[in-house]
From TrEMBL:
Residues 330-401 form the RagB/SusD domain. The lineage of its organism: Bacteria, Pseudomonadati, Bacteroidota, Sphingobacteriia, Sphingobacteriales. Residues 1-18 form the signal peptide. This is SusD family protein. Its main location: membrane. It is found in: Cell outer membrane. Keywords: Cell outer membrane, Membrane, Signal. The keyword Iron does not apply. GO terms for cellular component: cell outer membrane. Belongs to the SusD family. Pfam families: SusD-like_3 (PF14322), SusD_RagB (PF07980). Residues 23-223 form the SusD-like N-terminal domain. It comes from Pedobacter insulae.
Length: 444
């Protein structure tokens, strides 16, 4: 696995990326294409087609969507298995693109950190900020690995017995460290804490992280971990920034894609571009979820379109096109704050935050207010479900809610007349791909 990563890291300079082409143009006589300078690190960290693309598994495993048997039969085997929550998703000898891509991100970040460590800061703010970016990239990738391949920290007595291999060094001869969920969450928190202390205040592009981005990811991280006080504190830092909610009343539902790329609500850009599930006829909105959008809700027309048979398809990506937006938005952080406040017993604060969102999402706020149920937490979670559909966060929410006994199980899907169920905590932790484990054993 490590040799594969080394080759990938070197070939990254040769890919069709404008920054990488510039690298080659400026250094045509280099005998070995090994990143060495802070400029090289900048190019590596701007490789958004790798570093900003997030796992498709977060979508395929979630209950945001359903498909039909004919459509399911046209999917790749691993895709079929993940849709049905099979115990073994990947066949023997089959690579997991998501698993390898996340490890590649970690490795690229390690390379950048190693280079920057050799350069030394000496008061260079650019070097410090680049270090912060690399730490953020590594933390974000580790967080995805934890959500997919490790149990939730509240997942029961066997939680500490499950481990995954993580390479935290750019040294290809160093052995990977086998990490439990506690180990990896501690590493993520440490990386993000340091990143915040050194990263620049405001990034030039939304494909790069900055101080607000780090706080946004910390809010998500602490919400997943159940540290609601810390999640609320981090969220409030974001809510006090220059970002703001889109006013959905000002958008046109008649457009094929109503939202623009890098809009004022988008904090950090992330995406996935699998056409079959992002713009093809294979992925319908979960009918129970679609039924939860009332006509008073602008999102019903802005997020969805109906096919010829009247089935709802998604069109509301913040990428402005068919690619799924899987980054971080102001609305998500507002919902993190609302949920955290309610769970901490600060009901008025939480509902006030939710009201702020509702003002930008409903045609008649009075109608929305009159239909709020008696349970504040249920109200917040229903709005979270409606707001973050197809954003890549649902699997994270399902997993943390299941660990707390708050997710209604079983969840079922039917293919070829057979009903498959997601019904226990163990199914929320994916088995490691055998192919990747064999590579790890080979090079260790």
């Amino acid at each position: 696995m490590k040799k594969y990563f080394v080759i990938s890291a070197l070939l990254i300079i040769l890919t069709a990326n404008v920054s990488c082409e510039k690298f080659l143009a400026e250094k045509p006589k280099k005998s070995i294409l090994v990143p060495q300078s802070k400029e090289d690190v900048r190019y590596l960290l701007d490789y958004y087609t790798t570093l900003n693309e997030n796992p498709l598994l977060n979508f395929t495993l979630s209950d945001d969507w359903i498909t039909t048997t004919p459509n399911w039969e046209g999917l790749n085997p691993w895709f079929q298995n993940s849709y049905l929550w099979k115990e073994e998703i990947f066949a023997h000898g089959e690579r997991s693109t998501d698993f390898s891509r996340l490890h590649r991100k970690v490795f690229y970040a390690n390379i950048c950190l190693d280079i920057l460590g050799k350069i030394g800061g000496n008061g260079d703010s650019e070097v410090s900020s680049l270090r912060g970016e690399a730490l953020f990239v590594r933390a974000a990738a580790l967080f995805y690995l934890a959500k997919l391949f490790l149990p939730h920290p509240d997942g029961g007595p066997d939680t500490d017995n499950m481990q995954i291999p993580i390479q935290l060094s750019a040294d290809v001869n160093a052995k990977a460290e086998w990490m439990t969920i506690k180990n990896i969450l501690d590493r993520i928190e440490a990386d993000l804490t340091e990143a915040y202390s050194v990263i620049e205040q405001k990034a030039a592009f939304k494909t790069r992280p900055d101080k607000v981005t780090v706080k946004a990811l910390l809010s998500r991280f602490y919400l997943y971990s159940g540290n609601y006080g810390a999640s609320l504190d981090a969220a409030n830092s974001v809510l006090n920034s220059t970002y703001k909610l889109l006013n959905y009343a000002e958008l046109s539902a008649g457009k094929p894609y109503p939202f623009t790329l890098f809009n004022e609500e988008s904090i950090y850009y992330g995406y996935h571009s699998n056409y079959l599930v992002t713009d093809g006829p294979a992925s319908y909105i979960n009918p129970d979820l679609y039924a939860d959008y009332v006509d008073n809700d602008f999102r019903k027309q802005l997020f969805f379109k109906l096919d010829a048979g009247g089935k709802p398809l998604f069109k509301g990506s913040y990428t402005g096109g068919f690619s799924l937006f899987t980054g971080i938005t102001y609305s998500e952080i507002l919902l993190n704050a609302a949920e955290s406040a309610v769970r901490l017993g600060r009901i008025d604060e939480g509902m006030g935050l939710l009201n702020t969102l509702a003002q930008k999402r409903y045609k008649d706020l009075k109608v929305w207010t009159e239909n709020i149920g008696p349970d504040p937490l249920e109200t917040v979670m229903r709005e979270r479900r409606r707001e973050l559909v197809f954003r890549g966060t649902r699997w994270m929410d399902m997993k943390r809610l299941a660990a707390k006994g708050e997710l209604q199980l079983p969840i079922s899907r039917e293919i070829r007349g057979v009903v498959y169920r997601l019904e226990n905590d163990r199914q929320f932790t994916l088995s490691l791909p055998l192919f990747e484990l064999e590579l790890e054993n080979k090079f260790n």
